[in-house]
Design brief:
This protein is an alpha+beta fold. The chain has eight helices and seven strands; from the N terminus they run E-E-H-E-E-E-H-E-H-H-H-H-H-H-E. A hairpin with a 4-residue loop joins strand 3 and strand 4.
Length: 198
Amino acid sequence: MSEEINTGDQHESATVATMAVDQVFGSTQYFELDSTSVGARFAIWVTTSPTYAQDEQVDYPVLYVTDGNFSLGQTAPLAVMQSDLLLPITPYLQVTIGYAGADAQDWGRVRNRDLVPPGEPIPPAMRGSLEAAVENQLMTRADADAYLEELSNTRADAFLSFITDGSTRRSAVATGSLRRVTACSATPTVACSPCTPC
């Protein structure tokens, strides 16, 4: 695709090659997926690289990114770097996982359920921060106690099962978001870790 540009000079004009947005930034598709292991509904964004549609025979590694409600806008545009000649990045597919429904409104608290391992002690600094919030009337005692209760009932193991049991990948394939992914037997970590080719 090209576009003719008038340079303002009556005697000059230039033709500049232009690209579609998804050729520059890749494309992102959205769907929601219920997790039986967590007992929650998740928002899933699948971002493909700008070269994904052109590379029919290439398998791509998958990068799982958490905190999708916050991080998608910061991380999905990095797909443009995959075609940057000066700072090349090996092409990958990004599966960003966030929250849907009521959990999306409270993702900052709900994420503790999914990212903190079961039995993890509550750090003294966290308790201190909550006490300071109550003292400064930024949070009620009931809200602080509810937050501490949530932190004592975390299930990162269930969230990891949701990511690694294949249902996320199968759903992405079923929606047409993914066609080719690198098979991986390695278990990705919960927080922003690539699933590298085995």
